[in-house]
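Weekly modeling sync, notes
Attendees: AB, CL, MP (scribe)

Item 1: holo prediction request
CL wants a bound-state model with beta-alanine before deciding which constructs to order. AB pointed out that an apo prediction alone won't tell us much about the pocket. Agreed to run with the ligand included and paste results into these notes for async review.

Input as submitted:
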Amino acid sequence: MDILKTKADMQAWSAAKKKQGKTISFVPTMGYLHKGHVSLLEIGKPLSDELVLSIFVNPTQFGPNEDLNAYPSNIQNDLDLAQQAGVTGVFLPDKNEMYGPDYQTHVSLDHLPQYLCGRSRPVHFGGVATVVTKLFNIVMPDVAVFGKKDFQQLAIIRQMVKDLDFNIRIIGGEIIREEDGLAMSSRNAYLTSEQRASAVCLSQAIRLLKQKVAQGVRSVPDLVREAQAFILSFDHTRVDYIELCHPQTLEPVETVQAETLVAMAVQVGKSRLIDNALIEPA
Ligand SMILES: Nc1ncnc2c1ncn2[C@@H]1O[C@H](COP(=O)(O)OP(=O)(O)OP(=O)(O)O)[C@@H](O)[C@H]1O
Ligand SMILES: CC(C)(CO)[C@@H](O)C(=O)[O-]
Ligand code: BAL
């Protein structure tokens, strides 16, 4: 497994592989790897000859009051997991390597970032679109794998790849969960044991909403009210949003008539946790 710390080294590595006729799968991450990340590596591995993992905590996708400086890190453990998963190249740049002092170009999308997480994280998706564009140009993958836990991020990347004509196949990996249903996340590391017990409220609220829809409830305000009350019955929780929306446009819906995305963000202690699922009315 090769570790590449500069853009030039990474580009040269990928160019050399391509010259040998090899294809490249790519999994971008911010590190502190867990089984969710490993599942994306497992998806990417059989699809190409080479498997590249990037680890970069991208400062431009964090707002001023977010957890950039507290973001967890354990590079040695990440490298061990990467090796076990068959990664052949790790891109591990630092902040100055990615953004020089005169950096001034940003990628933005008109609509998709306005919904869901974009409302409370106004700079987030511009930062993601910009860094993923840079990572695609540096790693030059044939295939890139993103998790469905960040459903809106995946939708934005797909749109960006289409709009900007990247010749990269984008694959979405299913959400990997703890035994009690909590979606795995690097931010689960911030939870105290009491908060960890409350964190199950997101996946349980999704289950509740699925049950209500199966019972025939169709009114989104009613569904959201029920889910909100359920989540607030757990200690240490604050609802950022619970929304039901169109799975492609992410526009809010008023009634559940067709396949609908339910997405939520809940602050549990210091962790802002997200979860989502598709609901199909019977
Ligand atoms: N539980 C999960 N199941 C599947 N994919 C996941 C899961 N958690 C994260 N991913 C995916 O891993 C990739 C890298 O995400 P990232 O490094 O931000 O991890 P994270 O655990 O989501 O961290 P955070 O706590 O910042 O949300 C993204 O494509 C993300 O959607
Ligand atoms: C895609 C990504 C690596 C860009 O920094 C990040 O948003 C993430 O880990 O999901
Ligand atoms: N997985 C999304 C990265 C972030 O929350 O900044």
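Recorded for review: Residues 186-276 form a domain with the Pantoate--beta-alanine Ligase; Chain: A,domain 2 fold (CATH 3.30.1300.10).
Action items: CL to compare against the apo run; MP to circulate these notes.
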